[in-house]
Design goal:
Four copies of one chain form a homotetramer. By secondary structure, chain A is of the alpha/beta class. Helices cover about 45% and strands about 20% of the residues of chain A. Chain A contains six helices and seven strands. Chain A has a seven-stranded parallel β-sheet with strand order 4-3-2-1-5-6-7, sandwiched between helices. In chain A, β5, α4 (about 105-115) and β6 form a beta-alpha-beta unit. The termini of chain A are close together. At the A-B interface, α3, α4 and α5 of A face α3, α4 and α5 of B.
Chain lengths: ~160, ~160, ~160, ~160
């Protein structure tokens, strides 16, 4: 039966704080029995979240922009090789029941916008006031704010209860 | 020889003011001998810009998200049928030498982010302070602000002179 | 109003005979007032067909697999930059009213299969008995055989009369 | 660490013989500890192979052409939602270490061609003489023939030993 997939989006070049947050987030996602989905690269938030999930024995999926698995995070179990470049960002969010943005960059901003465009719920984790205001102005009803991993997980549980199977 | 393609991105549900702006923008793009590229649908900014370009005898390209040409703007000369859904947004910006955002919505926000991610110059035309600040915070060196069509066209000319062939 | 787009698919490494055929085909397509669509690269059938169309004053579109216009045929007027790799093959055929295969290779074989899968009519131009038999066995009603350019053009006209606007 | 993913491609409308073959193939893939990848739909070869893999306790991935999980096989663990239509066929083969074609149709033919174009090894399982000849004529060095599931599994093992990590 289809497993619940939670997507964590974040930049390849992350601050140490964002990486730590991503690691804890990945770990909590795995502890809840959900599959972790990221952009799959051995960099920043993608790698940290995947390592966190593996530390808790979870299953990790990485949707790669490239045409082979070069540069993949070692913590990714199932690589999806797309050769789509940044167009793969739309797949990242479509394949996630809930999208969590951890850290911000141009790729992440495109993923938040695409997720909301595709009617996906998005949790903005520890984002700046500017980021929260911008996305709230475009889709206030599907944007959720969390100030730490615990709050984000509570929100995921709440959202999953509301999504029809 | 390859023609210069200028992309105009904007929501399918546009305000009358945005539609007028898009019409004038499309017209000016055609008057300068550039090809107009939009998302191709018979709605909002896409349709208005295409109609403006045709009024000035220009050539118009529409990159459609769907699997056929149903719902295409009658002012599109060359339809590119992608069946990619919102993943086609990445093609819109990659195929444009310069991207101009006219009006704002989730699709347009994703296109601005994807354009900047792909190192494309983006002109924000008559956007809110919040929108300008958000994208400036992510890529200050490739974001240009214009308050009317004339200013946007001057910026396009300036940017084209700087882009290597 | 939407122009009629005819797609010519063929390998980047073409025999001199295939290139000559592609050149004549591109020329005839332009002489009939149709837009020529190819894979856009400066190689083989794509380049030859585009040069033929330009020699007759036609309009040429090239749907590129890469993330920029490096390697584009100089005879392409409108480059569509996809960064989709071989997934762009599906766009080539979806964007064409009729698909003509000139020369054969793995990319071309995928385009013929995808065209037929998407219910597009396909003309096999001077193909081997094996190729004709294979595709006829999968979709006999949408596969047309032509032994020269003249026959292919007659078939395009016949097919266009049957396609609803 | 990255798991070994084996792709089984086959039509949504399969003969009972092809479905039985696909079921046995999925089962054997799981028994060997490999992840099964299919097109994910609750139809034909995709569904049968996934059910076989689950019967042996394996992990199954389904790369869907649609924008949500409607029509997904209940035997798919991890759905990848692409909204790419038939362009997703390129992802199916890029994400597989080895591609096995079981049954034949237009989608499957495009996947075999795309796999070979992307330099992937392809096993043609119980295909007709015509199909084998056609693909052998285009890429003789990467096309393998198997007359039953056992032979196919032996070939997969042999190919995996030759692929660099």
């Amino acid at each position: 039966m289809t497993k619940v997939v939670i997507g964590v989006m974040g930049a390849g070049s992350a601050t140490p704080e964002d990486s730590l947050l991503a690691y804890q987030l990945g770990k909590s996602i795995a502890e809840n029995g959900w599959v972790l989905l990221t952009g799959g690269r051995k960099a920043g938030v993608m790698d940290a979240a995947s390592r966190g999930a593996k530390a808790a024995g979870g299953l990790t999926v990485g949707i790669l922009p490239s045409s082979d698995t070069t540069g993949i995070s070692e913590a990714v179990d199932v690589p999806i090789v797309t050769d789509l470049g940044n167009a793969r960002n739309n797949l990242n969010v479509l394949s996630s029941k809930v999208v969590i943005a951890c850290g911000m960059g141009l790729g992440t901003a495109s993923e938040v916008a695409l997720a909301l465009k595709n009617d996906k719920p998005v949790i903005l984790l520890k984002q700046t006031e500017l980021t929260c205001q911008f996305f709230k102005s475009l889709a206030s009803d599907r944007v959720y704010l969390a100030s730490d991993v615990e709050e984000a997980i509570v929100l995921v549980k709440k959202i999953l209860r509301q999504i029809p199977e």
